[in-house]
Design a protein that fits this description.
It holds the Pfam family ARM_KDM8_N. By secondary structure, the protein is of the alpha+beta class. Helices cover about 35% and strands about 15% of the residues. The protein is globular and about 65 Å long.
């Protein structure tokens, strides 16, 4: 780096590839200084020389700027400053052979940082992950995995399922798949050391709902054991996981159907959650294609023309969500919701070798949004 630093206690051969940072380092520091970031610029200059304390101080300064107000008001240069500081921190950990710490810093940059250094971050993740696998003798992502399944493969008993689903459920079709994403060894080998944002709590409408940052392996363990520190379900929801972890992105392809009519793909998101995870009734701004990769999920869809009868929240942040709890509809408060027509199904894994994407009915307007629910 003007960026490619090494720590005095590390291996001088362990260096992260940062060509964009090398080229943009001085101009980026000048832009940061122009926004009052003189102290940050001094710390960043020391970080290049391998000063871990300075690198962490620069990262903390940028972090404070990211939280100085509403996210949309944060200047883009501070997001790039945060990415740069994370790269410096990651480089120092990497040179010292501390691969987990290096990946954690890189993931925070991918989650919270700007776009300028995105390629440097992804290339660095690939290198750190490769070295980490050599050190731990993890299974390679391309290997055959026959270990414990994340979700047990058991036949579905519709009569039992109907006992816990909302009334009048499963009047529509059922859709049916199997993938290596149900193998814990594979997921841990590819992404176990990566840091991801998760939600903890029944759903985002509950008062005790919160967000956490955990490693993917810890998150998978919570799903497998059905235990979290708060005993509430942990959910990785609507996160651009494939932008962050490119190795998982390589496992999927976008169907041509997404581009019918000249539309553009707006986002590619993943949902991972344990049994019992519930997303409240809500309206999305885009069309969706929803695929079930592992396990099963009950889906219920109402026509967009019934929006008022589903009593949306009046608050701006929740105006796309319904106040109606389908598991326990308050007939007095929400009388119109009782007899509304809907379509529903149990979305399942498809059978065969490759992932199968199932188009579902959608509301009018917008373009296709490719989603994955786990």
């Amino acid at each position: 780096m003007s960026g490619a630093t090494t720590a005095s206690t590390g291996d001088s051969n362990l260096r992260l590839p940062t060509p964009t940072l090398d080229a943009e380092f001085q101009s980026l520091l000048q832009s940061i200084a122009a926004q009052g970031g003189y102290a940050y610029s001094r710390m960043a200059a020391l970080a290049v020389a391998g000063d871990q304390g300075a690198a962490e101080a620069a990262r903390d300064m940028a972090w404070e700027q990211l939280h100085s107000g509403p996210w949309h008001s944060v200047l883009p240069v501070w997001r790039d400053a945060y990415s740069m500081a994370c790269l410096h921190v990651a480089q120092i950990h990497f040179a010292a052979g501390e691969f987990g710490e290096a990946l954690g810093a890189l993931d925070m940059a991918l989650i919270m940082g700007g776009m300028l250094l995105r390629k440097d971050l992804h290339d660095s993740v690939l290198l750190v992950s490769s070295e980490a696998r050599k050190k731990t003798n993890s299974l390679e992502a391309s290997g055959g995995f026959k270990s414990e399944k994340l979700v047990p493969e058991v036949p579905i008993d519709i009569s039992e399922v109907l006992k816990i689903l909302p009334c009048r459920s499963l009047t529509s079709r059922r859709v049916e798949k199997r993938t290596k994403w149900n193998h814990l060894d594979y997921l841990n080998a590819v992404a176990g050391n990566r840091t991801v944002p998760v939600e903890v709590g029944k759903n985002y409408l509950c008062s005790d709902w919160k967000q956490e940052l955990v490693t993917f392996s810890k998150f998978l363990e919570r799903i497998r054991t059905k235990k979290s520190p708060s005993m509430e379900p942990t959910y990785l929801a609507q996160h651009p996981l494939f932008d962050q972890i490119n190795e998982l992105r390589d496992d999927i392809c976008i169907p041509d159907y997404c581009f019918v009519g000249g539309g553009e793909l707006q986002s590619l998101n993943a949902w991972f959650g344990p049994a019992g995870t519930v997303t409240p009734l809500h309206h999305d701004p885009h069309h969706n294609i929803l695929a079930q990769v592992v396990g099963k999920k009950y889906i219920r869809l109402y026509p967009s023309s019934l929006q008022d009868e589903l009593y949306p929240y009046s608050e701006t942040m929740l105006c796309n969500s319904s106040q109606v709890d389908l598991d326990n509809i308050d007939k007095t408060e929400f009388p119109k919701a009782m007899e509304l027509e809907f379509m529903d199904c149990i979305l399942e894994e498809a059978s065969g070798g490759a992932m199968k994407l199932i188009p579902l009915p959608h509301s009018e307007g917008g373009v296709f949004n490719l989603c994955f629910r786990f």
